[in-house]
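So, who can interpret the following?
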Amino acid sequence: MSGKNQQLPVIERKTVRTAPPPMYKVLLLNDDYTPMEFVVGVLQRFFSLDHEQATRVMLKVHTEGRGVCGIYPRDVAATKRDLVLGFARQHQHPLQCVVEEN
């Protein structure tokens, strides 16, 4: 056995870090027909905002034309958008909800 000069293979550990998924903003858009109270209810129901937070977002939508409801991974954002649009149509309101990359 001539083990003195024999080198053992070196095993290196590589740390692989995955990037966090891209996040998407869910936004409500202003219109002239959907009641403010309905928008506040949508924000509370689908985005778990308390009444004060929901009122702030609703006023931003009303005054600036759009407001951010939350920021989520793509699938969650798309699901929330679809739920809001379905709920608004069910109640015969033209409320628009869109998703944009953050």
Q: What stands out?
A: Strands lie at 23-29, 66-73, 96-101.
